[in-house]
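Long-time lurker, first post. I've been practising inverse folding by hand and with some scripts of my own, and I keep getting stuck on stretches where the structure tokens seem ambiguous. Below is the full token string for one chain I'm working on. Before anyone asks, I'm not after the true native sequence, just a reasonable design that respects the backbone. If someone could post their per-position residues I'd love to compare against what I wrote down in my notebook.
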């Protein structure tokens, strides 16, 4: 991976909060391959199996098992490891869990983020903070409009409202303490937030998520039960938004003032599939299985949510690599390999990462290019 992201991450001290989660594990794997000196701060993985444990990533990083709500521990961690770049993923990420545990959700998502920002203020080693929120941060009117970065924050349920609140807090800290106009004078920290749609990929076993539910059912020869077959989501492979986060972090390192904003990362419009369409594709690729629709009344979940990614396309030079079929195929193939009891799952996962990078390079995706293209983005 020489010169990938212009070697910005090589030997850099990088903090990843939430590194034991699904996205956090993939990001930790990628950063490790890029040569970063990684510190991970998170609770123990809350699924069994766990991608973090399967890949044995604990042995490759400084692993801190702690709660993002523990402000004192977080402060001590930053003081000790002095991260230069931070990717903040630690969160309570599930909509239905948030209905049952709203207090925990708000404390984790909102105050956990405040704790991190305060720790950075107390220990100003970080030059870049990429705060990962969610596409659900937007005030969703469930229309055909794709939401762009200037749309209002909101949320009609505990999870989405917590993410909307986090975006407002991020904006407030950026204007109050990490103001781009004061960069290099009052502070040296660039702060951005990133929003992605429904992310799929190998190694996710979270409850009440479509792909993990499908793989559990199909592996056990049971029908897949789906709640909202007509709900539309911007489905994308996990490596797509991660490439965007890494690309953004690279540009922020070079010129944080120009990129300290909110950013959407998602698939092309044609990849906005219904839940039922995704299930059918999964069953087709898995080569067996069936599904049933649960007609019972369910807790409210947005039925239509799409992101406008033109800002990232035009200003970051980032673009998606996989179409919907490829994203689903890569995901299902990972689970088939894992459940096939193959012993070298780390190498298979790394192969999927390298295949993505090769396709990105072949497609001339700028996240994989060198200084010449970075300078174009900065111009």
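-- Answer (accepted) --
I ran through it position by position. Result:
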């Amino acid at each position: 991976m020489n010169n990938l992201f212009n070697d910005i991450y090589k030997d850099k001290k990088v903090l990843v909060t939430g590194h034991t989660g699904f996205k956090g594990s993939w990001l930790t794997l990628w950063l490790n391959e890029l040569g970063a000196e990684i510190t991970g701060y998170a609770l123990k993985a809350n699924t069994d199996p766990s991608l973090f444990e399967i890949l044995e990533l604990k042995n490759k990083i400084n692993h801190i098992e702690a709660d993002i709500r523990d402000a004192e521990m977080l402060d001590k961690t930053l003081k000790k490891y002095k991260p230069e770049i931070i990717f903040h993923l630690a969160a309570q990420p599930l909509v239905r869990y948030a209905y049952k545990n709203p207090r925990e959700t708000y404390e984790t998502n909102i105050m956990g983020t405040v704790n991190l920002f305060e720790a950075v203020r107390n220990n100003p080693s970080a030059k870049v903070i990429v705060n990962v929120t969610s596409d659900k941060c937007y005030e969703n009117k469930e229309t055909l409009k794709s939401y762009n970065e200037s749309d209002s924050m909101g949320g009609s349920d505990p999870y989405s409202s917590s993410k909307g609140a986090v975006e407002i807090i991020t904006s407030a800290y950026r204007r109050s303490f990490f103001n781009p106009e004061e960069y290099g004078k009052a502070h040296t920290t660039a702060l951005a937030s990133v929003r992605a749609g429904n992310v799929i990929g190998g190694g996710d076993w979270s409850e009440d998520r479509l792909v993990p539910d499908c793989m559990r059912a199909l592996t056990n020869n049971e029908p897949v039960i789906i709640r909202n077959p007509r709900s539309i989501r911007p489905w994308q492979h996990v490596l797509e938004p991660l490439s965007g986060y890494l690309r953004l972090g690279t540009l922020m390192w070079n010129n944080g003032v120009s990129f300290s904003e909110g950013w959407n990362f998602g698939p092309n419009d044609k990849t906005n599939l219904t839940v039922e369409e995704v299930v059918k594709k999964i069953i087709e690729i898995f080569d067996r299985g069936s599904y049933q629709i649960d007609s019972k009344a369910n807790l409210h979940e947005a039925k239509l949510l799409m992101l406008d990614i033109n800002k990232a396309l035009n200003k970051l030079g980032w673009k998606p690599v996989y179409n919907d079929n490829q994203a689903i195929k890569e995901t299902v193939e990972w689970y088939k390999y894992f459940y096939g009891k193959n012993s070298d799952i780390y190498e298979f996962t790394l192969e999927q990462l390298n295949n993505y990078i090769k396709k990105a390079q072949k497609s001339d995706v700028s996240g994989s290019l060198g200084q010449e293209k970075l300078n174009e983005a900065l111009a």
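A couple of notes from the structure itself: The domain at 4-197+235-267+308-322+343-378 is CATH 3.40.50.720 (Rossmann fold). Residues 366-372 have pLDDT under 50 and may be disordered. Happy to go over any region you disagree with.
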